[in-house]
Amino acid sequence: MTRAEWEALVEYTLNIGRQMMECGAEAWRAENTMARIFRAYDLEVLDAHVIATQAAVTVKTPTGEHYTSTCMILPDKTGTDLGRLETLNAAARHICDAPPPLEELPLCLKRPVARWSWRELLGYLLGAGAFAIFFGGVFLDGVAAGAIGGVVYLMEQVRRVHQQNKIIYTVVACFLAGLLAQACVGIGFGVNLDLIMIGDIMLFIPGLVIVNGVREFFYADILTGLYRLVEALLIAGAIAAGYAVSLMMGGSL
Q: What are the residue boundaries of the Threonine/serine exporter-like N-terminal domain, all occurrences included (predicted)?
């Protein structure tokens, strides 16, 4: 390969690791994926290091040339997208099984634009409604929680388009969801305010972030684990703040 082709391969592989982290993958998984791709092209991996906010690689070609590249992982672009993560994993497995020429590398790295998905919307509706009923609410509570869940989905789509700060978004979204829950009970479209709120709160809980943060500790990625656990705590605090303010304002009204 020419120097330009080696550099393109390094950038391509680094991009895979970055997007995996943005989709919610563990740091060790992104590092392992990048290292496997490099070895598939007979590159010696001198370093493949990923933390929550940065990825860096250094490789050595069979002729002794070194290539190093780094990239930032922006917090406002990170989230949980398991479908996208599976696409990236499948592309990496394909490359490792039969390394193609650079011009034939899977065209999976083009970042998908934010789009409306009926399946995601249905998940928000059913998820919020089912949790409200599961915790003891009546059917009408589930319907109310599901309707508010649909509004939460719309707010989440707006956040994705404008790449808003996740903590601020969570406070505002929880505040509005709390007001909507109180309005539903006030007009008779719901019975148990607390259960409606619980159903919608479950949409904001950073469960995967907490689990991945703990897993990072087991793989000795202490810095990334701390980052994710702190992020989860901040989101939990934002959830509490948003609903608390909505309850205080709703009570005064």
A: 12-248
Nearest to 153, CA basis, from 122, 107, 190, 113: 122
What is the rounded distance in angstroms from the CA atom of residue 2 to the CA atom of residue 95? 19
Lookup: tokens for 183: 């309005």
Asked if residues 21 and 33 have their Cβ atoms less than 8 Å apart, the reply is no
Bridge partner residues of 68 (DSSP): 58
Nearest residue to 137 (alpha-carbon basis) of 185, 204, 183: 185
| Span 195-219, pLDDT tens digits | 999 999 999 998 888 888 888 888 8
| pLDDT level of residue 252 (50, 70, 90 thresholds) | very low
Give φ, ψ of 80 to 5 degrees: -120, 115
Residue 33 has which token pair? Answer: 């994926």
